[in-house]
Write a structure and sequence with these properties.
The structure is a homodimer. Chain A is an alpha/beta fold. Chain A has ten helices and eight strands. Helices cover 47% and strands 10% of the residues of chain A. In chain A, α1 runs parallel beside α9 and α6 runs parallel beside α7. At the A-B interface, α2, α7, α8 and α9 of A face α2, α7, α8 and α9 of B.
């Protein structure tokens, strides 16, 4: 089974399904989203959508209203296509710690979502994920996905590896191969058995190649649709691997095992 | 004719030709290079190669010996495959201004190279390109290619647009779509008729799509081999364009016109 480990609710949902079909992808992890860059038709409209993204990935927009609207969109997509979409739930990291566990009970487990993410702490604030990982542990080791590209910093990646060490039952997935800090992400994951890297929007082909070589069982194919496309992300993995067990693990085997669906 | 607007001398050269063949690319612009990341087989050897890159793109390694070794490699590749490789020449930007013109006479025009690049000013130092653009103008408007990803800054892109305005006969090509500053690069190019953007290693598919939409006649397909692969770079362009005139311009028509080979 080919599983895209990273995508966001796409407007319209039908065009997301076509992107998956074009790439021969069976299922995709689906995160909620506030910005919709796929709606942009020119630079001005994109700047408008991206300003929402900048607030989100900077951890500055934690209004529950914004989250709830995004969750409704996600619920609709999941209900319409349960055979294609695998729902993960996000939580506002700006909440007091004690409310985070309640929010995960209610909005992740309560909505029958199977993982947590994509989480986007403010730069330098990755330690705020501690109560999330604790809740993930308390729910039997839910996978947790953290945004890895800028503004996430190399220091944040170090913090994440320490948190992962504290909750070894929780698979901690660093998205976008850690962005420009991809070598740090791979080295930290090499030394942290429950840390995984997801490959979307990696801009260097040899970064993808070496990540898979160093972490054959903990590297996940992902597109970050609509920021990347499944077809191109899959072609990148296939360009740097040979047919066989490792490629199969990267393209879906490992994610399927983490989710218990293989 | 399909022309890759950005690649570096690859070790071995034969594997570069296979990458071009796999992607159906007829010819590629070829820059000299000091680091050879394609040689790396694991993270440690890559860190060694990348430290050379960091010095080069930071503008800190301007020893002529390093340049001369890279130029010899490039001359060998150009002599062996003149039907595939289009040679551009680099110059050390750390030289005094008056020596830069002499160096371009001798090492670019004197070696029958048809453009200048890839140039990598230190961050914030793009104004050092003024004597290069002046020489390019004096030689009839040689195209000049400037590294666009980090450590090049948004301020550097602004400086480049001012320099381009000063030498309107010189096509100024910003590589890697300006990296994380891609929106700035596209907006500046929109207002600067002799400024072009090259698409290699762009990490967002809609950045490629919107760049082509805003600048259909000044957007160039490029792979930045070995940092990217021609097949994936071409697939990205084809994913966001329809068959027709604009796609043909991006994939080679515009570069061919700039070089007078179409």
């Amino acid at each position: 089974m080919i599983i895209d480990a990273h995508s966001h609710v796409h407007d319209p949902v039908g065009s997301h399904l076509r992107l998956l079909d074009d790439a021969g992808v069976d299922r995709t992890v689906l995160f909620a989203t506030r910005p919709h860059p796929e709606r942009a038709t020119d630079l001005n409209s994109l700047r408008h959508e991206m300003s929402a993204l900048d607030r989100a990935v900077g951890g500055h927009d934690n209004s529950l209203d914004g989250y709830r609207a995004a969750w409704r969109e996600q619920d609709d997509a999941l209900a319409a296509h349960p055979e294609r979409f695998i729902g993960f739930g996000s939580v506002p990291l700006g909440l007091p710690e004690e409310q985070i566990a309640a929010m995960i009970d209610q909005e992740v487990v309560g909505r029958r979502l199977v993982g947590i993410g994509e989480l986007t702490p403010s730069p330098g604030q990755a330690s705020r994920l501690d109560p999330v990982l604790k809740a993930a542990h308390d729910h039997g080791g839910l996978p947790v996905v953290v945004h890895g590209f800028a503004p996430t910093t190399a220091e944040d990646l170090h913090t994440l590896s320490i948190l992962a060490g504290r909750y070894p039952s929780v698979p901690l997935i660093v998205s976008q191969l850690g962005g420009l800090n991809w070598m740090t992400a791979v080295e930290l994951a090499r030394d942290t058995p429950n840390m995984y890297v997801e490959l979307s929007t990696a801009h260097l082909v040899f970064a993808v190649k070496l990540a898979i070589r160093e972490l054959p069982e903990r590297t996940l194919f992902g597109s970050d649709t609509p920021y990347g496309y499944p077809l191109l992300a899959r072609a990148t993995v296939e360009r740097v691997t040979s047919p066989g067990e490792v490629r199969d693990l990267v393209l879906g085997g490992t994610m399927g095992r983490l989710l218990g669906i293989l």
